Amino acid sequence: MTSSIWNKVGTVIGAVLILVWCLLPVAWIISLSFKSQEAVTNGSTGFFPKSGGGAGWSNYKDVIQDDQFGRAIINSIGISLIATVLSVIFATLAAYAIARLEFKGKKFVLTTALVIAMFPVVSLVGPLFDMWRTLGIYDTWLGLIIPYMSFTLPLAIWTLSAFFREIPWEMEQAAQVDGATSWQAFRKVIVPLAAPGVFTAAILTFFFAWNDFVFGISLTSTENARPIPAALSFFVGADPFNRPASLLAAGAVVATVPVVVLVLFFQRKIVAGLTAGAVKG
Amino acid sequence: MTSPTGVRIATAVAASVLATGLLTACGSDDGKATLNWYINPDGQDTLNQLAETCSTDDYTIKIQLLPSSATDQRTQLARRLAAKDSSTDLMSLDPVFVPEFANAEWLLPFEGDLADQVLDDDVLKGAAETVQWDDKVVAAPQWANTQVVWYRKSLAEAAGLDMTQPVTWDQIIDAAADNDGTVGVQANKYEAYVVWINALIQGAGGNIIDPATAEDGRDAKVDVDSDAGRKAASVIAKLADSPARQPDFTTSNEGTSLGRMYPENGAGEFMVNWTFVYKNYEGLIGKPGGPADDQAFDDLGWARYPQTVAGEESKPPIGGIDIGVGAYTKHPDFAQQAAVCITDAKAQTALAVNDGLMPSRQSVYDSAELKEAYPHDLLQLFSESIDSGGPRPKSAFYSQVSSAIQSRWHSPASVNENTPKKSAEFLEAVLKGEALL
Amino acid sequence: MSHAATAPPRDSDRARAENSLGRRLVAPAIVLMLLVTAFPMLRALYLSLFNYSLTAPDDREFVGLSNYWTALSDSLFWRDTANTVGIMIVTVAFELVIGFAFAMVMHRIIFARGTIRTSILIPYGVITVVSGFAWQFAFSNTNGFVNGWLPFVGDDFNWFSEYPSSMVAIMASEIWKTTPFMSLLLLAGLAQVSDDMIEAAKVDGASWWQRLYRVILPNMRSAIMVAVLFRALDAYRIFDNIFVMTAGANNTESISFLTYRQVIEQFQLGIGSALSVLLFLSVLVVAFVIVKLFRVNLADARQEA
Q: Distance of CA B150 to CAs B246, B271, B330, Å?
């Protein structure tokens, strides 16, 4: 009986450790964003601002009103959303074919997806820079959307084909037998069943696009198209020689808010997508 | 299954692509020409004002901010120019990048009258040298930077060091070590470290690259492996071993040592740093990190850059900003006119008085406004240092030279008498394309 | 268990129609994936045969394979490769062990499941660059908390002044961010081990340790191996954390960072392209080695995330 109490205690301790592991750096970055820039320049260790070193919300105000960062937020949202929509559309078509149809080259598609997932994107920076500048899409939204789409396709295809395999397709035929047209059957039966999978694939794709750094710093050179991660690394604060830690922290928190919101609301779907439905609940 | 959905999907895709196209085409011209001026973060407020005052009825100057590190600035600008970008009109360039950009034909040379306006006898020699390449005037000097040694007079007194006479590095390191002070430098693995190394080598009479061969590009003669190089290495090694070095010595930059002039505990420091320091401390009187009051501020002293070798004149570093005009600009005449306006005496006065960015023209040093904003002897020290300063190698491959030196001379804790030789061999191999940098 | 329609006999009209439809549906995805990878790689292969500096475009000259020779005979290349492999091995090892522990805890948790899952996903969703900054500031000796929390480290210790401590900081950021994701993958594998087998082992008197070693782990083998493959390749391509935390100082460069520097900072498109090709080939080599060494089931890899 004691072993089962040990089990329970161990599990609780484990749960607490997991929470601390995941949330400590986030709490740290938030605490950093409340230190004043002067305090940081002169050195202010620890989690809480020293007396007189607190900045309240001023770092957040500065960050949001900053032209370059404000533009970066717009860039990130726009580019990530467009890339996500287009990528999910392409992936849905491909995943439908993979899950439902027999055709030559299925293995080729899956192997290509695997190779893309393993690809070192830094290798593409040189040739893409060359190609994009010749085509005139260097430092534009389109110049980033295209690589984002390519590199999010494997994950989207895998997630969607796993979902599609679970859909009971014969219900579509049953609906048609009951008198629905093929379009109605598709819309009323299949779409609701497929929608969660598509939605999950969209979220995972969005995370990937939101997170990109390499393309963001190499295929842009001004705030025209620079996304948030790249913009963060070019932040300039009051002290031009050192990274403005507290300002950056505020920017980082702003960049993390959409992620946290998505995770809070769609945690189940995301987990299901990542583990292809094996983890229940 | 395909027809209705296929059409719907195709329209969705087409709509998105169209939307993307429209979004990327954002930013249309509306009458007046816009000149984009890419600036580095020094003196932003004044530069913004300059952009306004120098805008005319024909054109508006719009400021774009570059990252704070010189290397990042170069990367951003070079990529735009390599992509033949027509919206890069004016650029604030670190003087060491001017040869590289000029050699790549990315800078529009100034000719005739404009060249005479931009470069005349009023411009100090050190600054004037940085804008000439291949017998052409390729940029306009705006402000000139140099380093002096800033120190606490009380510390120098306690050490018995007479700062009115030229001092050597050995002397200030010993003085700080024996009197609870420190020596502040820039020794992180970045450009300012090369500034220090270059100044040490030139102060001992040597050069990283033989200046007569610098324009030969890859065939330039590497001179680091010399007595001068070894003397420079010994200074760095001495500071690395001395109790006078600061705890973040190996990652120090212009900002990290500022806080140690007026520390909570300790006697202060001898710090080599750029000209902005005076205004920096003046603005911090009574604030953390700065002098406690006016009296403490008066304890701040300045002297010429330390000598590497006793008796041999020191070569203070030269920096600053030159304004270049992009070769692919749609408005070459406007851009060059604007360049003349933002580098004239008035502009330089404003930068000096407001931001501590010193002029490159002698007449501005003699002006009333500057005499009011700065102590007379400090002004004299600045203009002297700029006039007799030592520029870094003027090579089109400067960025490789700098990176090669950085890679072999960092960390400063590992510098010894073999370092010059190793770095010379490495630099030669890199220039020939036989080694990875 | 697939619900796919049963395949009609070959060469029938229906089979041909299905074949053609299938290929048309996957075409856009395939075209896009290859456009952005295969074509630029071929171009990189072409450019790698030249001595080509972007700042001196007129001096471009054909040098054949000498760029490859320069790269492969340079100690910097091998040092960075060793760095990268070292990071890969150490981070994956830590992530496996800690991730597995987390997975076991999550497997047993009934209460607060939602909260735990949410927190597990936060490191996954946090931008890598943000994690890099967070840990860089955490390890900073002027603004961080690590020096204060670790009793055996002086308050002035500068983690970023030397190689070993810089690597620790970089790996801390990597491990922090990806262990939770790894634990999710392992949890999925764990959930698939049938409870009956574990019960049977318990009835047979096996201890907790034996149950782990002889029942659970062997049945999770394929899930673990796929997770290891993906994580290892991710670690091999490490870039963001190094860029942000040390910018390659103190010899902490990875092979990706070296390639980036050559192309973007040095503007040496010739040798940069050679390095790009070598980087790609080395990833293939590493993947091959892992697959063979751990006998990863590629079919599983192709169909799972």
A: 15, 5, 45
